[in-house]
TrEMBL record:
GO terms for biological process: small molecule biosynthetic process. This is Fe2OG dioxygenase domain-containing protein. GO terms for molecular function: metal ion binding; oxidoreductase activity. Residues 180-295 form the Fe2OG dioxygenase domain. It comes from Neoarthrinium moseri.
Amino acid sequence: MASGRLFEDIPPFPAGLQTAPLYTIPLAGLRSGDEVTAKNTLKACQDLGFFLLDLRGDRLGDTVIEEVDQLFNVGKDLMNLPYDEKEKYLHDAPKSFLGFKPRGHAKIETSEPDRFEWFNIGQDGLLGNTAPQRLPPLIHDRHSLLTSFVEHGQSIVRTINSTLATQLGLPADAFASLQEPTKPSGTVVRIIKAFASPEAEDLRTSMIHHTDFGTITLLANVLGGLQILAPHRPPEDKSAWLWVRPQPGCLIVNLGDAMVQWTGGLLRSNVHRINFAPGDQRFSDRYSLALLVRPEREASMKRLTGPGEDGEDGDLTAWEWEVKKAMALTREPAMMQSKGGKQAATKT
Ligand SMILES: O=C(O)CCC(=O)C(=O)O
Ligand SMILES: [Fe+2]
């Protein structure tokens, strides 16, 4: 999340909304190996699969706050380029999701068009794992800021991964060794613009409910709009949607489906969506920034711990598994359900 600066000129997040009960995990505690922090992290990742990560008071964290502030401004400039400029970088879905996705290219629950744009910048091109991605000059000029954000974000992800692995009684590098940033993967930096909702007809979802495919997502929000589906409740139940209140100096962290697969369902990947922003915030365009980490393409999706049988998915590579999931979702979008969160004996 950004520093307090980006929160100064925005309408307030309204009081009285039903908000998600999120743990706040201090990055400093995670990095120093504090046992209470580690236990709370595991609990958050089992109960809801979402938590706030407080970056403040940690050297790496303070650097990331600065980078997020700068990238928010880059993201606004990018998304406010004329449409025909952005269109030059149109993604080639479903073959590749890199580049620009225009508003309305996907549907929401009601089959109406979505209300957001995104631009995905691949880690592989940034770090030189593959040929560079073609990017607008405005982004190209900020290459070192982007690579630095990816490297710092990946360092945070590594810490979360080793904390979770250790708490589950696995070798510390059990998850991290399947998602080395220097190996080709579907990992992206994503810049999102969800459009303001001034009219009554805009008061609906911007981005359809979903779970993230990957391992760990680091998300920076300033305006509200993100909602988490309360566990064990159906998406059609309006009262089951919990708002996330963005907090200065904190990132929102959530787990994706790969962590559920590797842990036989011990960890949780929870359904979430972008709704219209609450209160007077709805009159502003909403920008957000995420690092969505995926396993290495060649990583095995075999279960590393947890109950149950592997099933045939355990024989797939991460890339094959992601393609299979994407195809299933195209056929049956209603399959977007939270996964994991099984209770089982863990390290005491
Ligand atoms: O912008 C946000 O708050 C959430 C974005 C999201 O869920 C995604 O890109 O997967
Ligand atoms: Fe997401």
